[in-house]
Each structure stands twice: as C-alpha cells, then as structure tokens.
Design goal:
Elements: H1 6-9, E1 16-20, H2 26-35, E2 38-43, H3 46-56, E3 69-73, E4 86-92, H4 101-111, E5 112-123, H5 125-134, H6 151-159, E6 163-171, H7 175-184, H8 193-208, H9 211-224, E7 227-234
C-alpha cells in the first residue's frame, strides 16, 4: 500500500532517499526497486526491519546494481547521518506516534539537502476523530497514536523548520470505513465476518489494482481519504 506519490516527490534514479519510520518497508522497497534510488529505511522496531529485509530479498534482483539499499535501527531524534545527506525524505504515518514530533522535524531538516524534497503523511483529522470516538483501544495501545493533527497547523509547523509547501493530496479512502468498522467492533475485529470480507476487498485492491476500486478510491480520496499527504521543499540558503 503506497501512500507517497513518487512523481510528486520528484524521485530520480540515483537519489539518496530516507524512509524515516519505514515500518515493514513499503516505501523504502518500492522506491528502490521502481525508481533505482539509494534507499535507507530507519525504524526503532527490529522485527519490522527484519520483515522489511525478508520482503526485499526476492525483489533485489529487479533493482539497479548501482543503487544501494540499507536498513538501520535508530531513533528519529538522533539520526546516524551527517548533515545534508539525503535528496528526499519520506515520513509516512509516523509523526502521530512520536511525543517530540517537532524534534523529528528538526532532524529531517538537518539531514535533508538544501533544495531537497520532504513528504509527510498523517491520519486525516475527521476520519481519525471518528476512530477515536468508537474505540479508545485503537489509539491507546503500545506505540499507538498520541495525537490527532490538524493538517493546516502541521503544515505551518513544518514550514517553520525551513520548508516550503508545494503540494497536498489525500489517500486510502477505502481504508476509512474499514478502520471505522474495526473500531466499532474492536473486541471481535479479527473474527467479525463483515470486517473479514472488507479486508479481502482491500487486499484485492492492493494486489490486483482493479479499475473499479482504483477509480472509486480516487474519486473518494478528496472527501474521505484516511491520510493527508503533504510535500515540501527545503529552502536553499539565500
């Protein structure tokens, strides 16, 4: 499931790309394999990094031999990279999990080259509020969501760190009702027949990408996309 639009981010072969909070590697892997970039995935969870490696290995042969792929278990507040290392930074569905999210933005600004591009995505405000209203367990689990962002306020905060916003879109509208259902029936979410059928629909959409679900999601994203996705350039020194 890809949240970031690589064309909007401006990925080019040979770019050095950081996927911060990479999870199981959905962006790090696809960026490396599809766009021939040097991809660096960073996460605190070793299990997720191991899963990323397992997913990557059968796909490695399809990537350019000149492009590198690396993973690191590191704190987003103390990244093990020099200043101005990366051409692009992706931070997708991460900031809502971190207490000192402004500190993470400062680290992103530090490691991104002047003129480089940064993509941040977080859960959209109103669908997320409904999830919280239906279930406290949804966000009060270990590693869960600590806050609900207002997109305009988040954009302003990112811009205060030396970035300039240039594009925004929404993503994953078909996932919004799925998460509402899971929150409504939290205790039986793994066995509920409606949720299980809906999950099959989402898997079909992700794997086969049929025109029906793809067109439906594209039409619904501006109204009820679960994620808001924002793109920024790091300002160059005057």
């Amino acid at each position: 499931m890809q949240t970031v639009d690589y064309t909007r981010l401006g990925l080019r072969a040979g770019d050095y790309v950081l996927d911060l909070g990479c999870g199981e590697g959905r962006h790090a892997i696809t960026a490396h394999v599809d766009r021939d970039v040097h991809a660096f995935g960073v996460d605190l969870c070793m299990d997720d990094l191991q899963t990323t490696l397992e997913k990557f290995e059968p796909l490695a042969e399809h990537a350019s031999e000149e492009a590198g792929f690396a993973l690191s278990c590191a704190n987003a507040l103390e990244l093990p990279f020099a200043d101005n290392t990366f051409d692009k930074v992706i931070c997708s569905e991460v900031l809502e999990h971190i207490e000192d999210w402004r500190g993470v933005l400062a680290e992103i600004e530090r490691v991104l080259k002047p003129g480089g591009s940064f993509c941040a995505s977080v859960p959209r405000t109103w669908p997320e509020k409904i999830c919280w209203a239906f279930s406290s367990e949804y966000h009060e689990v270990k590693g869960g969501h600590l806050r609900i962002f207002d997109a305009r306020e988040l954009r302003s905060e990112i811009e205060s760190h030396g970035f300039r916003s240039y594009y925004r879109h929404w993503a994953h509208a078909l996932h919004t009702p799925f998460w509402w259902l899971k929150c409504m029936f939290w205790d039986t979410r793994d066995s509920n027949p409606v949720i299980r059928q809906y999950h099959k629909l989402l898997v079909w959409d992700i794997i086969d990408q049929p025109w029906l679900t793809q067109a439906t999601e594209k039409a619904l994203n501006p109204l009820m996309g679960k994620s808001v996705v924002m793109y920024f350039h790091k300002e160059k020194p005057a």
